Amino acid sequence: MSNQPSTLFDKVWDAHVVRKIEDGPDVFFIDRHFIHEVTSPVAFLGLESRGIGVLFPERTFATADHNTPTINQHLPVEDPLSANQLKALETNTAKYGISHWGLGHAKNGIVHVVGPENGITLPGMTIVCGDSHTSTHGAFGAIAFGIGTSEVEMVLASQCIMQPKPKKMRITINGKLGKGVLPKDAVLYIISQISASGATGYFVEYAGEVFENMSMEGRMTVCNMSIEMGARGGMIAPDETAFAYLKGREQAPKGEAWDKALAYWKTLKTDEGATFDLEYTYDAANIEPQITYGTNPGLGTGISQHIPKAEDVLDGGASYAKSLAYMGFAEDDTIIGKPIDYVFLGSCTNGRIEDFRAFASIVKGRKKADNVTAWLVPGSHIVEAQIKEEGILDILTEAGFLLRQPGCSACLAMNDDKIPAGKYAVSTSNRNFEGRQGPGARTLLASPYVAAAAAVTGKVTDPREFL
Amino acid sequence: MAYDQFTILKSSAVPLPLENVDTDQIIPARFLKATKREGFGDNLFRDWRYNPDNSPKADFVLNNPIYSGKILVGGRNFGSGSSREHAAWAIYDYGFRCVISSFFADIFKNNSINVGILPVTVSPEFLDKIFLAIEKDPKTELEVSLPEQTVTILATGEKESFDINGYKKHNLLNGFDDIDYLRAMKEEIGAFEAALLF
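^ inputs. structure came back:
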């Protein structure tokens, strides 16, 4: 063993290398594999055509989320193609003995919400899923990232993938986040600073006072969006906040196993003197509530700012002009006061209980604007139950909002929740790509506070006015 | 899924000089509902390629008959966003075997190799040369040699080398895939698994 100082990332990575290939990728062991109905069916077909089975079925967990409707979940799914994918997941998981939380199951919800809330996600683990937002689980000090369907098949077949080790980046934010500034704002700020491709080829560790003081929900929001700066994933060293979150969760270790795990987890931090390939440091005082104006998550700014001119943007040029034209915005426009049509609270980025608490704290005692259609979608049935238990549902109802049932919903619009062409949506999801929330939809990414302020005023509004 | 061998590809190319082409554009989410890996090419770049009434958009490059070939040339940060392998399937199914850009998103690059498409990263300067050559003559042929790891603009002879991981190169040249390799390690993986804390 070397005594060289090492990073959190190195510690977890190196513990999972089964074999190193000369001039090739590492054979990388996967502790937890999440699957859902969209990116797994072809992987199961692959196993079948090879005539092989699933090596460790107990290490894979299935949930239905991408396609599921958010109303009338007790009825048969109307879209025959969606119903077919859901059925395929059910059949495949039953055939190979994989745990499956399908539509209607008490623990069903978005894969990146249900993994942590049931204690399936643990520090020091390697976690993959055929979904780029698998990076969410890095909030617990796990190495977690999205993979393609061929790799889903690899994990089912061998519990390993072939993975070259990424480079390491550390992003530090010092100081304290200001009033009305949420974890979503912190990560949107970072992406706007380094661009939608600024961390490609890297795995990111988030460090500094802001993340140390952040709740687990907040850390999940931040790690979730690591992929939006191109990173393979993001992670945060597990600490007392993480341990307290995990203790007692259904599938987390108990008793002696907990003590043993805890002793290991406490070693999972970057040693003093360990080095990164690239470092960025920011001051929390410079971060105000953020909002995007373009068609990638890097095209965002502080809510009080003007839309930048092309020459001031990292991705300026032909793509920038195309982006603003799609959004119906112009260089140097103000964003505050732009009328909006839809608000979406939900997704694996901001569909957790804290997000609903934040949203409710602003709409409490106010009314939904008449020109706004609001889709409020919890990330899981457990979140939905909390919303009811904590009285948040009453606040939402009094303000004129309806609560929908859990799922990915309008984040990627694979179900019926599609923003119509040309309409503006303030969305707490993770992507503002062209057509992401429906063909022709125009998405402004923002925090639950900004979404709530927009929902009650009908236009882009600085939420600090209401706090 | 095993795929075709890739050695030397000589073809004209289709230019898409836009940055940050994300996988939601390559294949929108509403076309991910199949349970088989077939027919995705019809919906490649669906919303850039067709109007809402399904008539082709005349100004989109795939609808312009002067461009054709098995090579797609994209702008910087090609394939960002969603991990959906369907994007690579759509590109392959449409008939492309190689994508050239100055910068690829990681997951897309991995997915491409896993389905038998060669992603070739060239310098921004060489990418511009390729775009200029195609602009000058849409029939311009490129030669992509995997054994030599080079891209050549045949009309001018301009050439650049590209990097590829040795293991991945070997697989592409031979049409092997990772699962065969991993299944042969079953015992080693089993022993590794048995020693884990979780």
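The CA atoms of residues 336 and 460 of chain A lie 5 Å apart. The mean pLDDT of chain A is 97.
thumbs up if we can close this ticket
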